[in-house]
């Protein structure tokens, strides 16, 4: 190893890997201001008249949403508005587009799930947004989100592709029987089969 032999592994100009190589400590110039609490980050910048948003997310992988009570949260200091899937549906905001070209098993068009920006009626994955809180500060938005009461009715869920493909598995989308929405084949099947 070069650090044991003392060989110069640098460019020949006297700067060696021994001094500046991987694993070697370097003098840091930014530590003093960070240790004194003087660091500035883009998250610290609050333009005038700006607001912050916090997303309340489902803790369940699959659940009916019976209702959302946000009256107490809306009355909290600094809160401007709270939006739910009901609001998104009423404003016809639609959802995230699916850009994956595919066909249904057996041919024909496949079911394209409406990936709503906020869950409406049902949460289909853990972490799916169920409400958005807009407030003067992020802390106020988080506090208000904690005051929101969501009536969840947990449903059976699948946690892996193998479980989702098993007979009788809970359906993520009722419109998609057997949880199989699309079939896509890439490459030359004959060449792949011959290779294995």
Give a written overview of the molecule.
The protein is of the alpha+beta class. It folds into 2 domains: 1-45, no CATH class; 50-155, Aldehyde Oxidoreductase, domain 3 (Alpha-Beta Complex). 23% of the residues lie in helices and 19% in strands. It contains 8 helices and 8 strands; from the N terminus they run αααββαβαββββαβαα. The chain has helices spanning 2-5, 17-20, 31-35, 71-74, 85-90, 138-147, 161-165, 189-195, and strands at residues 52-57, 63-69, 79-84, 95-96, 115-116, 122-123, 129-135, 149-154. A 3-stranded antiparallel beta sheet has the order 1-7-3. Strands 6-2-8 form a 3-stranded antiparallel beta sheet.
Q: Can you tag this structure with a few keywords?
A:
3-stranded antiparallel beta sheet; disordered N terminus; Aldehyde Oxidoreductase, domain 3; flat; 8 strands; 196 residues; 23% helix; 2 domains; alpha+beta
Q: Enter the CATH topology name of the largest domain.
A: Aldehyde Oxidoreductase, domain 3
Q: State the helical fraction.
A: 10-25%
The CATH class name of the largest domain reads Alpha Beta
Shape estimate: flat
Note poorly predicted spans.
Answer: 1-8
Assign the structural class, choosing from mainly alpha, mainly beta, alpha/beta, alpha+beta, or little secondary structure.
alpha+beta
The value of Rg in angstroms is 27 Å
- Provide a count of the helices: 8
Please tell me the overall pLDDT: 86
Report the order of strands and helices.
HHHEEHEHEEEEHEHH
Strands, total number: 8
Instruction: Compute the number of structural domains.
Output: 2
Strand order of the largest sheet: 1-7-3
| CATH architectural arrangement of the largest domain | Alpha-Beta Complex
Strand content: 15-25%
Largest sheet: 3 strands, antiparallel
Q: What is the terminal-to-terminal distance?
A: 41 Å
CATH homology superfamily name of the largest domain: Aldehyde oxidase/xanthine dehydrogenase, a/b hammerhead
